[in-house]
Amino acid sequence: MSMATTDPRAAGPAPFVPQAYRVEEVTRELADTVSLRLAPLDGARPDFRPGQFNMLWAFGVGEAAISISDVETDGSFVHTVRAVGAVSGALAGLEVGTRVGLRGPFGTGWRVAEARGADVVVVAGGLGLAPLRPAIQALLADRARYGRVAILVGARSPETLLYPEALAPWQRRPDVEVLVTVDHAGADWAGRVGVVPGLVPRAAFDADDCVALVCGPEVMMRFTVAALRHAGVAAERIHVSMERNMKCAVGWCGHCQFGPAFVCKDGPVMRYDAIADLFSIPEV
Amino acid sequence: MEPEPRARTTALIDRRGLQALIEALADEGYRVVGPTRRDDAIVYDDLADLDDLPAGWTEHQEAGRYRLVARDDQALFGYAVGPHAWKRFLHPPVETLWTAQRDEHGLTFRSPEPAEERFAFLGVRACELQAIAIQDRVFLEGPHVDAGYGARRREAFIVAVNCGEAGGTCFCVSMQTGPRAESGFDLALTELLEADRHDFLVEVGSPAGAALLERLPHRKAGGADHRAADAVVARTASRMGRELETQGLKALLQDNPEHPRWDDVAERCLTCGNCTMVCPTCFCTTVEDHSDLAGTRAERVRLWDSCFTLDFSYLHGGSVRQSPRSRYRQWMTHKLASWIDQFGTSGCVGCGRCITWCPTGIDITEEAAVIRATAPQRRDP
Ligand SMILES: Cc1cc2nc3c(=O)[nH]c(=O)nc-3n(C[C@H](O)[C@H](O)[C@H](O)COP(=O)(O)OP(=O)(O)OC[C@H]3O[C@@H](n4cnc5c(N)ncnc54)[C@H](O)[C@@H]3O)c2cc1C
Ligand code: SF4
Ligand code: SF4
Ligand code: FES
């Protein structure tokens, strides 16, 4: 029985088939975390929006969803990978010159431009800073169009604070407020100790006219959203980046479901008001 | 709404005509697949001729029970649906997605050659037509198109059968998916088995169906034949084994994620995933990578998966859905509620397979009814 749908042959390369990329550079970020700069072997790097992710494939091991944490003008993607298992471990162990598979970018991005004219509060916990870095870069590249900008960053300890070399110049800018905190620290840490949501009341922003971008572990996001809501930020002005198991990234494998949302295509960046009902229910 | 009485071309064929249909499809290069008896069940497999159909058999289906029983006639389609669904052909349980070759020059990915196979499905029930239409939405109507599924689907020739026997766990009437095949077929048959005849009313659903009918020995269908076919369907509709109240069901489930019934069902559910394997609409998959010892060739394979496994929702730090309660809740809420948000249709077609093939006899219609009867809060749909 024929169908009234578009001819699949016209759909271009199958979204399951990766493109070959070469590891151009490996930068150790933390004890268990590296950044990989990846350039396509053929053709140009596809466009992306801050907040999107790629599926990276390590030869014979498997694939993992990894956020785009930066791009280089030479046309490469930067991905920051924390080794937590087989695939991420293999990716984090790659050497310069190795070929990997990459497909993407997938998913929704941070709606940075929507925040024009308003204050912006960026809240990152741990590796959550990776998908937020391109959003921060976009904000700062176009700084005059936004109100106050606050960047709140948390990590477990001073040693696990991501991208210190990126944080330092942001901290030096007079037009950006950067607040950093760690959960635990030794006596040599002069900075704040405490969890990230605790930074929300300290940051200067207009709760009635701001946009919040939040990424980190789910508990951290839950408490951060609560702090933002408590400060008076409307649910529809809070954006969070969700994480779920992903096998396909195109809405076919079902693994990433979060209530009615497929996190791979309706997310990872989602408006909080769209998911508020689900956010408080365990095991969704 | 009453279906248009006879907007379609119809004809009458007999058993010889049905044999000719199988032959004509094979002759046109189709792999003809349909119901056949194997391992004490009626499954979908290759049909060489009419004798491969389960003549004279029916089944008793109840929650957690399936048993073949001899009929007292020689009906060819006198049963409902078994453990197989057509998804095993259109969305196969194992499928190679690509292979990769690595050498000193680089890394090359290759999609497998599209299979030459063209399927002709004989005996597709109305609920199954709807299940196929639902999987079309998943694989063909999103931002991406699954080319393999699309090719198999585009090439498939579909011969539907209007049900003459309702299964003990069927509830297509509640889901408005049957028992009459309304659209989505090339030809549709209604078996007319009376003391003095064994015929099939054929309805034409597409130009390809019309062309095929021309190749078969057939005669004109008269008013009495049409009335007899209508009576078959009406009788089946009146004998549904189950029913499911769908009014407000989506909101009911989405508003009650903490209903105590989820704990109750979790005590009976083995999280075996049988329900998801037999369900004609469940589409979830996982992937596996294989590579050769030399590390030069790798392959990625897609396999059916089930939301009932602990691994399904695995994240570093632990699975999201740890408890059987949350996994049953995910499955049933997806089927009957969030599916509507995602694809504009319920994910359940009322085929009853999940009820029949659940080892502990968990019944989706009963679970929904209990939640409805005992839900603390309600919201207008
Ligand atoms: C949208 C998105 C963006 C991400 N961005 C990054 C990033 O920038 N950097 C980074 O290091 N990690 C990121 N992750 C998490 C990363 O995908 C997982 O850590 C990784 O899949 C773990 O795979 P593994 O095989 O190493 O671990 P194992 O623990 O061996 O996992 C086995 C399987 O479980 C699944 N899985 C396990 N953990 C996760 C997880 N946290 N999220 C999704 N699937 C998981 C994968 O399918 C994996 O194949 C992101 C996840 C998502 C969903
Ligand atoms: S949920 Fe059960 S009754 Fe509904 S379509 Fe799936 S197997 Fe059939
Ligand atoms: S509902 Fe029944 S068939 Fe489905 S996972 Fe639970 S025990 Fe298995
Ligand atoms: S990752 Fe497969 S459906 Fe979202």
Automatic annotation (TrEMBL), chain A:
Keyword Metal-binding: yes
Listed InterPro entries: Cyt_c3_hydrogenase_gsu, Dihydroorotate_DH_Fe-S-bd, FAD-bd_FR_type, Flavoprot_Pyr_Nucl_cyt_Rdtase, FNR_nucleotide-bd, OxRdtase_FAD/NAD-bd, PyrK_electron_transfer, Riboflavin_synthase-like_b-brl
Required co-factors: [2Fe-2S] cluster
Boundaries of every FAD-binding FR-type domain copy: 16-112
GO molecular function: 2 iron, 2 sulfur cluster binding; flavin adenine dinucleotide binding; metal ion binding; oxidoreductase activity
Keyword entries, A-Z: 2Fe-2S, Iron, Iron-sulfur, Metal-binding
BP term (GO), one: pyrimidine nucleotide biosynthetic process
Cofactor binding note from Swiss-Prot or TrEMBL: Binds 1 [2Fe-2S] cluster per subunit.
Gene3D superfamilies: Nucleotide-binding domain of ferredoxin-NADP reductase (FNR) module (3.40.50.80), Translation factors (2.40.30.10)
Matching PROSITE patterns: FAD_FR
Keyword Acetylation: no
Residues noted as binding [2Fe-2S] cluster in the record, renumbered to the chain: 248, 253, 256, 264
PANTHER family according to UniProt: ANAEROBIC SULFITE REDUCTASE SUBUNIT B (PTHR43513:SF1), DIHYDROOROTATE DEHYDROGENASE B (NAD(+)), ELECTRON TRANSFER SUBUNIT (PTHR43513)
Name of protein: Sulfhydrogenase subunit gamma
Organism: Halomonas beimenensis
UniProtKB/TrEMBL annotation, chain B:
Superkingdom assignment: Bacteria
Keyword Iron-sulfur listed: yes
Alphabetical list of InterPro entries matching this protein: 4Fe4S_Fe-S-bd, 4Fe4S_Fe_S_CS, Helical_ferredxn
Domain 4Fe-4S ferredoxin-type, chain residue ranges per copy: 258-290, 339-367
Swiss-Prot/TrEMBL keywords: Iron, Iron-sulfur, Metal-binding
PROSITE patterns reported in the protein's UniProt record: 4FE4S_FER_1, 4FE4S_FER_2
A single MF term (Gene Ontology): metal ion binding
Protein name, entry field: Sulfhydrogenase subunit beta
